[in-house]
Amino acid sequence: WAWSDTCCIDKTNNVELQESIISMFAWYRLSSVTIVYLSDVTDEESFRHSAWFTRGWTLQELIAPRLVWFYKKDWTPYIDSKKNHKEDPQVVKIISEVTFVHHKVLNNFVPDEVKKRMSWLASRRTTKIEDMAYCMMGIFGVHMPVMYGEKKNAFVRLQKEIMNLTEDLSLFDW
Fold first, then answer.
1. Contact 113, 106 (CB under 8 A)
2. Rg (CA), the chain
3. Tens-digit pLDDT profile for residues 106-163
4. pLDDT 10s digits, 62-80
5. What is the share, in percent, of the chain residues with pLDDT greater than 90?
6. How far is CA 173 from CA 33, 122, 125, 168, in A?
7. Residue 169: how many other CB atoms lie within 10 Å
8. Nearest to 99 by CA among 26, 16, 109
9. Bridge-partner residues for 77, per DSSP?
10. In the chain, where does DSSP find H-type helix?
11. Could you give the 3-state DSSP secondary structure of residue 24?
12. Are 63 and 105 in contact (CB under 8 A)?
Protein backbone atom coordinates (compact mmCIF):
# COMPACT_ATOMS: atom_id res chain seq x y z
CA TRP A 1 0.00 0.00 0.00
CA ALA A 2 1.02 3.64 -0.30
CA TRP A 3 0.74 6.51 2.14
CA SER A 4 1.18 10.22 1.58
CA ASP A 5 1.46 12.50 4.58
CA THR A 6 0.00 15.44 2.66
CA CYS A 7 -3.06 13.45 1.59
CA CYS A 8 -3.61 10.81 4.25
CA ILE A 9 -3.67 12.87 7.44
CA ASP A 10 -7.05 14.35 8.33
CA LYS A 11 -5.91 17.65 9.80
CA THR A 12 -9.45 18.43 10.97
CA ASN A 13 -9.33 15.42 13.32
CA ASN A 14 -7.12 16.34 16.31
CA VAL A 15 -6.72 12.74 17.47
CA GLU A 16 -5.57 11.57 14.04
CA LEU A 17 -3.31 14.59 13.64
CA GLN A 18 -1.68 13.97 17.05
CA GLU A 19 -1.14 10.27 16.35
CA SER A 20 0.23 10.96 12.87
CA ILE A 21 2.73 13.58 14.00
CA ILE A 22 3.98 11.39 16.84
CA SER A 23 4.16 8.27 14.62
CA MET A 24 5.50 9.77 11.40
CA PHE A 25 9.21 9.13 12.04
CA ALA A 26 8.48 5.47 12.84
CA TRP A 27 6.30 5.12 9.74
CA TYR A 28 9.12 6.40 7.54
CA ARG A 29 11.62 4.20 9.39
CA LEU A 30 9.51 1.09 8.80
CA SER A 31 8.62 1.87 5.19
CA SER A 32 9.79 -0.50 2.47
CA VAL A 33 10.64 2.49 0.31
CA THR A 34 10.11 6.23 0.58
CA ILE A 35 9.44 7.97 -2.70
CA VAL A 36 10.30 11.65 -2.74
CA TYR A 37 8.78 13.74 -5.51
CA LEU A 38 10.85 16.87 -6.12
CA SER A 39 8.60 19.21 -8.07
CA ASP A 40 11.40 21.71 -8.64
CA VAL A 41 14.13 19.32 -9.80
CA THR A 42 15.19 18.76 -13.40
CA ASP A 43 18.96 18.26 -13.06
CA GLU A 44 21.83 18.14 -10.56
CA GLU A 45 21.92 21.90 -10.04
CA SER A 46 18.21 22.12 -9.28
CA PHE A 47 18.52 19.04 -7.03
CA ARG A 48 21.15 20.87 -5.01
CA HIS A 49 18.79 23.85 -4.60
CA SER A 50 15.51 21.99 -4.16
CA ALA A 51 13.06 23.54 -1.70
CA TRP A 52 12.55 20.04 -0.29
CA PHE A 53 15.90 20.32 1.51
CA THR A 54 14.73 23.48 3.32
CA ARG A 55 11.44 22.19 4.77
CA GLY A 56 11.30 21.13 8.41
CA TRP A 57 9.11 18.08 7.92
CA THR A 58 11.26 16.62 5.15
CA LEU A 59 14.21 16.17 7.49
CA GLN A 60 12.67 13.02 8.97
CA GLU A 61 11.68 11.87 5.47
CA LEU A 62 15.37 12.05 4.58
CA ILE A 63 16.84 10.51 7.73
CA ALA A 64 14.35 7.87 8.89
CA PRO A 65 13.82 5.63 5.82
CA ARG A 66 16.35 3.01 4.91
CA LEU A 67 15.49 3.19 1.19
CA VAL A 68 14.72 6.43 -0.67
CA TRP A 69 14.04 7.06 -4.32
CA PHE A 70 14.04 10.67 -5.55
CA TYR A 71 11.91 11.58 -8.55
CA LYS A 72 12.28 14.70 -10.66
CA LYS A 73 9.62 17.14 -11.80
CA ASP A 74 8.68 14.91 -14.75
CA TRP A 75 8.40 11.82 -12.47
CA THR A 76 11.56 10.24 -13.84
CA PRO A 77 14.02 8.86 -11.28
CA TYR A 78 16.78 11.24 -10.27
CA ILE A 79 19.16 8.27 -10.70
CA ASP A 80 18.68 4.55 -11.42
CA SER A 81 15.55 3.73 -9.41
CA LYS A 82 16.67 0.19 -8.59
CA LYS A 83 19.36 1.63 -6.35
CA ASN A 84 18.92 3.27 -2.95
CA HIS A 85 19.53 6.92 -3.74
CA LYS A 86 20.84 7.44 -0.20
CA GLU A 87 23.68 5.04 -1.02
CA ASP A 88 24.74 6.67 -4.28
CA PRO A 89 28.02 8.50 -3.55
CA GLN A 90 27.24 11.53 -5.74
CA VAL A 91 23.70 11.94 -4.37
CA VAL A 92 24.89 11.52 -0.78
CA LYS A 93 27.67 14.06 -1.33
CA ILE A 94 25.19 16.66 -2.55
CA ILE A 95 22.69 15.94 0.22
CA SER A 96 25.38 16.16 2.90
CA GLU A 97 26.67 19.45 1.50
CA VAL A 98 23.20 20.97 1.32
CA THR A 99 21.76 19.66 4.60
CA PHE A 100 24.91 19.32 6.75
CA VAL A 101 23.77 15.79 7.62
CA HIS A 102 26.76 13.44 7.61
CA HIS A 103 26.64 10.68 4.98
CA LYS A 104 26.76 7.97 7.67
CA VAL A 105 23.61 9.40 9.25
CA LEU A 106 21.81 9.38 5.91
CA ASN A 107 22.41 5.66 5.52
CA ASN A 108 22.05 4.58 9.13
CA PHE A 109 20.45 7.05 11.51
CA VAL A 110 21.65 6.48 15.05
CA PRO A 111 20.94 9.35 17.43
CA ASP A 112 24.11 11.16 18.34
CA GLU A 113 24.91 14.48 19.97
CA VAL A 114 22.00 16.81 20.46
CA LYS A 115 23.76 19.86 19.03
CA LYS A 116 24.34 18.11 15.72
CA ARG A 117 20.70 17.02 15.39
CA MET A 118 19.47 20.49 16.31
CA SER A 119 21.82 22.08 13.77
CA TRP A 120 20.07 20.22 10.95
CA LEU A 121 16.98 22.29 11.68
CA ALA A 122 18.74 25.66 11.51
CA SER A 123 18.37 26.16 7.76
CA ARG A 124 14.87 24.69 7.53
CA ARG A 125 11.48 26.35 7.61
CA THR A 126 7.92 25.35 8.39
CA THR A 127 4.61 27.03 7.65
CA LYS A 128 3.53 26.91 11.29
CA ILE A 129 6.05 27.92 13.94
CA GLU A 130 5.06 25.00 16.15
CA ASP A 131 6.09 22.55 13.44
CA MET A 132 9.75 23.49 13.96
CA ALA A 133 9.43 21.55 17.22
CA TYR A 134 6.97 18.88 16.14
CA CYS A 135 9.02 17.82 13.11
CA MET A 136 11.94 16.99 15.43
CA MET A 137 10.07 14.77 17.89
CA GLY A 138 10.89 11.53 16.09
CA ILE A 139 14.51 12.51 15.49
CA PHE A 140 14.92 12.95 19.25
CA GLY A 141 12.61 10.09 20.23
CA VAL A 142 10.33 12.29 22.30
CA HIS A 143 6.56 12.38 22.52
CA MET A 144 4.59 15.42 23.56
CA PRO A 145 1.11 16.77 22.91
CA VAL A 146 0.62 18.68 19.68
CA MET A 147 -0.98 22.03 20.47
CA TYR A 148 -1.23 24.38 17.53
CA GLY A 149 -1.54 27.95 18.69
CA GLU A 150 1.18 27.73 21.32
CA LYS A 151 3.72 29.29 18.91
CA LYS A 152 7.34 29.29 20.22
CA ASN A 153 6.37 27.47 23.41
CA ALA A 154 6.31 24.24 21.38
CA PHE A 155 10.08 24.49 20.95
CA VAL A 156 10.56 25.18 24.66
CA ARG A 157 8.53 22.06 25.43
CA LEU A 158 10.63 20.07 22.94
CA GLN A 159 13.82 21.22 24.68
CA LYS A 160 12.39 20.21 28.07
CA GLU A 161 11.52 16.76 26.71
CA ILE A 162 15.03 16.38 25.30
CA MET A 163 16.53 17.47 28.64
CA ASN A 164 14.58 14.64 30.29
CA LEU A 165 16.45 12.17 28.06
CA THR A 166 19.98 13.53 28.15
CA GLU A 167 22.44 15.63 30.09
CA ASP A 168 23.90 16.94 26.82
CA LEU A 169 23.76 20.73 27.29
CA SER A 170 24.70 21.30 23.65
CA LEU A 171 20.92 21.45 23.30
CA PHE A 172 21.28 25.19 23.87
CA ASP A 173 24.37 25.70 21.71
CA TRP A 174 23.47 25.22 18.08
1. no
2. 16
3. 989 988 889 999 999 999 999 999 999 999 999 999 999 999 999 999 999 999 999 9
4. 999 999 999 999 999 999 8
5. 79
6. 34, 12, 19, 10
7. 10
8. 109
9. 71
10. 5-8, 14-30, 44-48, 58-63, 89-99, 103-107, 114-119, 131-134, 137-140, 153-165
11. helix
12. yes
